[in-house]
């Protein structure tokens, strides 16, 4: 008989019932953990003598990390912003994760630098920022004009990349200089409107995460002969 001790799992762990054909390596791979972490969470567990129906505890994340389940539309950059950490730190905490191939339902371990992240406080700060921005938008004639002209646009463009110094949109083959990280999230789609004037000069006006319209001017590129 196997040890029923494993039915009581500590915090940040969850129970798993051993299935026919299971090995510790297979369980670790399927549940995105590691053999060493599972053995540490289950003192006395014999990896060479797993019993069908045996309950073992699976650590959801290592110490000083929290779990995050991937939802549709999530990107590593957006998740990093939510928790106030870097993309590199998330990749380091989740070896083997492909940042370009996240799966809905996949579990990530997010490092807690300087203690547990105050997610509620972060959301309150963002809400306050949005309130201030909405108030400023109401007093800004440019924003009012953009909203009246472009607010009904059904077109959307995806942000293909955003860095501290530049941004690029799917709709136009141009990279724009400027610090737009935080305003736009790579991989997300945003309402936009495209306009043109004489001389090949064009404008793409895109709404950001806070509902603010940004206009980007560029010159139409003529094909080389």
Automatic annotation (TrEMBL):
It comes from the Bacteria. SUPFAM superfamilies: LysM domain. Residues 14-58, 66-110 form the LysM domain. CDD domains: LysM. It holds the Pfam family LysM. This is LysM peptidoglycan-binding domain-containing protein. It comes from Paenibacillus mellifer.
């Amino acid at each position: 008989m196997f040890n029923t001790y494993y039915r009581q799992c500590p915090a940040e762990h969850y129970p798993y019932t051993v299935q026919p054909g299971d090995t510790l390596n297979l369980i670790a791979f399927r549940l995105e953990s590691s053999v060493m972490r599972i053995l540490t969470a289950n003192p006395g567990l014999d990896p060479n003598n797993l019993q069908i129906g045996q309950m073992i505890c699976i650590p959801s994340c290592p110490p000083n990390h929290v779990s995050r389940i991937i939802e549709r539309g999530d990107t590593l950059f957006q998740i990093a912003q939510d928790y106030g950490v870097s993309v590199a730190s998330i990749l380091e905490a989740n070896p083997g994760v492909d940042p370009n191939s996240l799966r809905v339902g996949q579990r990530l371990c997010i490092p807690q630098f300087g203690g547990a992240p105050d997610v509620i406080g972060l959301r309150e700060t963002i809400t306050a920022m949005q309130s201030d921005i909405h108030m400023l938008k109401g007093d800004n004639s440019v924003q009012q004009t953009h909203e009246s002209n472009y607010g009904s646009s059904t077109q959307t463009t995806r942000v293909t990349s955003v860095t501290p110094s530049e941004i690029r949109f799917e709709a136009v083959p141009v990279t724009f200089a400027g610090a737009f990280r935080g305003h736009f999230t790579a991989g997300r789609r945003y309402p936009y409107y495209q306009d043109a004037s004489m001389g090949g000069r064009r404008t793409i006006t895109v709404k950001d995460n806070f509902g603010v319209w940004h206009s980007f001017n560029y010159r139409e590129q003529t094909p080389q002969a």
